[in-house]
Structures are given as C-alpha cells and as structure tokens.
C-alpha cells in the first residue's frame, strides 16, 4: 500500500504553554479584533460607536513565547505596541450563540499586537489588506494561557502596559465595545472556529512606538503579565 510522504518535514506545531501545567496549547489560527475600545478608536481617528466588529489575522507562527526577545522587524521605522487580552478556544463551531460562547473558551492570556504602523497606514490609504503591517514574524508576543477552570471568565480588570517603566496604556476589560461572548459569536458567523484558535480582543488607548533596547511590561489583572525586550 502506498504511504504518502511530505516533500519535506513539516514545521513544528505552534503552541503556547499552559500556566501551572506541563502541557502545551496547540495554536490553529490567530484572529484579532480591530478598534474594540472606544478610546483607542478615537485616538486612531475613528467613530467609537458600536459598529459591527471587524477582524484581521496573524499567522500562528507569528507567536513569540515567554522569555524570548522581540526582534525589531525589517521594512519599517514605526513599530507600535498594542496590549491585549487573548482568548484561547478549546471548542470550535459555526454560528455559536452568545449564550453558549464561553463554553468554547479554554482559557486566557495576555498578548501584544505588534504593528508596523507605517506599513499599515500605507495599506489603509491604498485600500489594501493589513497583513504587511500586522502578520510579520514575532508580531504576537503572548504569555502562557491560564485555564478558565482556574480563574473563571473575566469581565472586568485593568489592562496596562509600561515601556521602560513608564506607563503608556491603561484601560479596563469592561470598556470593550464587543465583549468576549459577543466577539466569539460574531466571529463564528464569518469563520468556522476550531480548537486552538486564539482571539486578540483589542487594545485600549495609548499605543505608541518602540525602539531597540526598550523593555515592554504589561498585563491584565487576574490573568497574568508579559515582559518583552526589543532587540
């Protein structure tokens, strides 16, 4: 019987550690919610009203796990930080109701949506996709995942980021325009969600640029913290 073989060995499965456990969470896709805090929508020049959410993606191998440095990317002079709550799904599906959306959540983490803002801005002006600004290598630093079984499902709590010890971002999860169950439900009407999907849920105001040598330190109260050096 013929046994199919790959042309070359597949790359390793992207994964995140699970806090307190000797297990890994295999990552399938990374979805990101755009402008999900009113104050951030305003600082980016947009109406903060409750318009339908929109999404973009990063690649699973864009993850940067705990303890690794963030390499300043090529083709840019304006790399921005965006501190976010990350939702990790253990179950997938389509047309998931808001009522049952949290049943699909395995746990939560804290992450950074690193952005080549200059390239994103050029893409916006030309009406082109954002991938060159959002989906580059190491553009998704992320902490270990904390299981919901241990902490529940947070609906409020400070989200913050310091750069070189100076606070740059501070908000609260209760300021999200689209809450986590609503986000999961809406996203599931656009894609068939799968176990292993991550959702970066948006950032509060205060986003800004970093330079080589900067230290980023942020977190979400009750979930965890992340510390990343720019090199």
TrEMBL record:
Please provide the record's keywords in A-Z order.
Hydrolase, Metal-binding
Task: Output the SUPFAM superfamilies linked to this UniProt entry.
Answer: FAH
Q: What is this protein called?
A: Fumarylacetoacetate hydrolase family protein
Task: Give the InterPro entries listed for this entry.
Answer: Fumarylacetoacetase-like_C (IPR011234), Fumarylacetoacetase_C_sf (IPR036663)
* Keyword Metal-binding part of the UniProt annotation: yes
> What's one Pfam family the UniProt record gives for this protein?
FAA_hydrolase
* Highest rank taxon of the organism: Bacteria
| Single annotated GO MF | metal ion binding
Residues annotated as domain Fumarylacetoacetase-like C-terminal: 30-231
């Amino acid at each position: 019987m013929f046994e199919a073989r790959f042309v070359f060995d597949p790359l390793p499965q992207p994964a995140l550690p699970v806090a307190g456990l000797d297990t890994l969470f295999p990552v399938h896709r990374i979805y990101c919610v755009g402008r999900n805090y009113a104050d951030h929508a305003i600082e980016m020049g947009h109406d903060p009203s409750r318009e339908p959410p929109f999404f973009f993606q990063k690649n699973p191998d864009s993850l940067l796990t705990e303890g690794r440095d963030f390499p300043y990317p090529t083709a840019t002079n304006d790399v921005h930080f965006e501190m976010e709550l990350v939702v990790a799904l253990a179950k997938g599906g389509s047309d998931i109701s808001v009522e049952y959306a949290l049943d699909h959540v395995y746990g939560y983490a804290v992450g950074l949506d690193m952005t080549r803002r200059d390239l994103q801005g050029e893409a916006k002006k030309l009406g082109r996709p954002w991938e060159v600004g959002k989906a580059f290598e190491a553009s998704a630093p992320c902490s270990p995942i904390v299981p919901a079984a241990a902490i529940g499902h947070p609906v409020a709590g400070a989200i913050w980021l310091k750069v070189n010890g100076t606070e740059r971002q501070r908000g609260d999860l209760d300021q999200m325009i689209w809450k986590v169950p609503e986000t999961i439900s809406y996203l599931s009407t656009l894609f068939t969600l799968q176990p292993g999907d991550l959702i970066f849920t948006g950032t509060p105001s205060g986003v800004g640029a970093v330079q080589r040598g900067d230290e980023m330190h942020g977190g979400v109260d009750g979930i965890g913290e992340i510390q990343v050096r720019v090199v």
